[in-house]
């Protein structure tokens, strides 16, 4: 095929730009030529072009699709005022409005907001906050964190330390990471929804009981050195798209209360409707002490995250030796990002209660045939999340290309071919995504 602008761009990229978890001399990437609605216009390294539904929502953040008029308008309006000012000693309307809205919709009595640059940084802030909180309570020796296997919280150093120590993509740095306390991965669970819409969680009760005992024993053993518990609620993301029973989160809340720990929930991937609740913590009906949010916060337009916490925690920090939360990013509360986030929240509030269950029902129905494929070990869905787990590692390049030929952009990893699509996908878009996943897995893996 003749060289196109896309193939030339891919060639210029290769060896110059690092991509996530990819070598400099790895496969040339697909070039994005346009993104609009839920579709990407892509050029392959060999010159072939594709129009594809983005089944990944750009790693789960572009929940409203691309070039949404409301988000475009919010960005243009704020650019015409000012794009950025420092947050030290200054404030502005987009940041205050967004904080008011976040504390109003968050699960539990959240009263304070700290803005961060990214999800990983928000986890760093939450962990630092937990240490400062314990010191303010007269327990400065509490310097470690309890979490569960299978978790993923980001790629910065403190965040890496609470990711799965074996399967968390960070095994190259064992000597540099703080040693945390890891409970077993919570037992798998499924949400069953009847035709009438009744919801019921199902799990192995004996496994759940054994897990509860293990968590209790770990917390009791390490109580005097633990500052907080940190987990992804109900759905673990990049650690394996693992779904677990809300009772596990209730157990962690009980353990935190019993031992004087903060409960930190990482809602970066699960917040803003993705799992079928506005926040995944709501499945358990628990009130966290600290919440991290990001990804869908700006609808994928700009990088922004936030740490929310209760008045009790905020008061403890204010009474502490330093009186402040000891963090301060240059782009903290970037006005442009906050303005777009306000517009994104409005869109989420208008549509997620209808869109997420609709997308979920279609994924559940149309991914089901994958369960009959010999290569498939499991098929599971939760909210607007659909997962096909293989019995062996995915041939990422081949499955990606096979899906593109069926009109869908996927980014499989490990043994997972999955989708977390934009909420605004039409019914036909969702069917196309599910059919492409099933067809690509069958074509490549059988």
From TrEMBL:
Catalytic activity annotated for this protein? (8S)-8-amino-7-oxononanoate + S-adenosyl-L-methionine = S-adenosyl-4-methylsulfanyl-2-oxobutanoate + (7R,8S)-7,8-diammoniononanoate
The protein depicted here goes by the name Adenosylmethionine-8-amino-7-oxononanoate aminotransferase
* Pathway assignment: Cofactor biosynthesis; biotin biosynthesis; 7,8-diaminononanoate from 8-amino-7-oxononanoate (SAM route): step 1/1
- What sections of the protein cross the membrane? none
Documented EC number(s): 2.6.1.62
Look up the domain of life of the source.
Bacteria
> Which coenzyme or cofactor does it need?
pyridoxal 5'-phosphate
